[in-house]
Predict the structure.
Amino acid sequence: MILVTGGAGFIGANFVLDWLGQTDEALLNLDKLTYAGNIDTLRSLDSDPRHLFVQGDIGDAALVAKLLAEHKPRAVVNFAAESHVDRSIHGPEDFIQTNIVGTFHLLEAVRAYWAGLEGEARQNFRMLHVSTDEVYGSLGKDDPAFTETHRYEPNSPYSASKAASDHLVRAYHHTYGLPVLTTNCSNNYGPYHFPEKLIPLMIVNALAGKPLPVYGDGQQIRDWLYVKDHCSAIRRVLEAGTLGDVYNVGGWNEKPNIEIVHAICALLDELRPRTDGASYSTQITYVTDRPGHDRRYAIDASKLQRELGWKPAETFETGIRKTVQWYLENNAWVDNVTSGTYRKWIEKQYT
Ligand code: NAD
Ligand code: TYD
């Protein structure tokens, strides 16, 4: 079996669902269930014996050691993290605790477990650390896209904490020989995305008749990847990646934020037109920019294609249509995650 951390979050849950949809190999899912973790996403696995869920913290070394000893996974895939840049600006501490200290404790537990393995089990063991393109910092308009050797220049508490975790993972390979793999991926979107991030927030606000808050001039550029393509990239790297290597993952879809928002409005105009006949784009509102806002991210994912034959299956146009359709069909999930503490966050961030 494999151990997945953070498997009740956006990407982790998509990974768990895809994994069990494609293989019979069991999966142990360790998740703290913070505000971003949602066990409802995994309801379809309730009676599936291949999915074992444990609520707990990656920073709880004793718990992780016990789980490793009991279940003897052949791999660990680490998604667990605090992941929202705006929250890291309001309160960085949780980011330091989970992304840095938590990853450190996880690495220590995994190192001790791996040291006790023998023969093929030791040789075949892998730990894959899921990271972000944000560790590379911000690009100018005409700069080439980030390659795996681009220097680290993180600008937000979130990206700095992820950069620190990447360095720890790297050091555990270099110093102790721990068989690690790291992926640095661009912005994901798709089903089960918590509506504090750009794409789901815009869909949910549009449908609720609320303003669509675009930071600054809306010309910041991100590369967007459909979440299931990220999951397939992780599976591929886990299967065939070179130990100690880093793989950039991206969708070859660089777009300014305002274009993303217009694309969502156009799809909603087509699929769920407003009753007054006006376009959802009339709800767009420019708001104060994010402090230290990175201007542009762009990922060069050619190493992953060249060495491991991976490329995304979705274009932005097909992926965003699937995403908007998913949100239109999954009101209950949205209602569930947007109750309670979610409202407090929206109030704090947007008023
Ligand atoms: P998310 O915030 O949706 O989910 C994070 C999950 O981790 C939640 O289920 C949460 O409960 C869990 N978690 C948080 N702290 C924990 C702890 N201490 N112990 C155990 N579980 C804990 O995040 P996401 O968007 O799914 O991102 C997953 C990973 O992918 C993160 O490491 C993130 O940095 C990385 N990443 C995200 C994106 C993106 O666009 N969302 C892009 C590239 C990389
Ligand atoms: P986000 O989804 O938070 O991802 P990240 O900051 O990790 O890239 O934001 C994506 C882009 O959208 C980013 O440039 C900030 C911008 N943005 C807005 O303009 N308005 C919003 O309400 C949010 C949440 C993000």
Summary: The longest strand covers residues 126-132. The CA atoms of residues 74 and 120 lie 10 Å apart. The pocket of thymidine-5'-diphosphate (ligand 2) is lined by residues 85, 187, 197-198, 201, 213-215, 220, 222, 257, 290 (CB under 6 Å). The chain has a mean pLDDT of 97.
